[in-house]
Amino acid sequence: MRTFRALAALVVAALVALPAGPAAAHGGKVKLTVAGDGAGGVTVMAVYADGHRLDQPVRLTLTAEGEGGRTAGPVQIEPSGEGQGFYSSGPLLSPGDWRVTVSAPAPYRSTATAQVQARVAQSPSPVAAERPAAAPREAGAGWWRWLAGGLAVLVVAGSTLLWWRRRAHPGPGGPVGLDG
After folding, report:
1. In sequence order, what are the residues at sequence separation of 6 or more whose Cβ sits closer than 8 angstroms to the Cβ of residue 64?
2. Cβ atoms within 10 A of the Cβ of 119, count?
3. Is the pLDDT of residue 113 over 50?
4. CA separation (Å) from 44 to 9, 34, 62, 83, 127?
């Protein structure tokens, strides 16, 4: 009975000592790095304060103040396809200088601010747009290369085998080695 009580006390103590969730396991805070995307959007990289990647999405909110009293947000930004912890606002800011603030809610409680210069998005170059698409390959167009390569391997292997056999076993009237 004593062993059962001791084991039960140990299990209860372990459950009480466990963190409340992923944020608690990493100290509860995230580190946010805010930057412009080269056009009118904002990108954010979010990692736990201990440097580990986020293991679940965080609801980040973006607000921005621009020249002349312009504002943007608050807007919730979504995880991007870049990988865990990467977020992107998409086109949001008009060209100019902006002070962008991104914040994470509880249990992460973190805020980061950065100066971002938004620019007009660049369109693809006319040269890239005019480049013709590669011609589609016909089915089976390269089979003769495989056939020629296979025949070349067979010829080399066959002549090497014949050379080795003649040298190792010269036959009647052939050259006699030093040891025979």
Report:
1. 42, 71, 72, 73, 92, 93, 98, 99, 100, 101, 116
2. 14
3. yes
4. 44, 5, 10, 12, 32
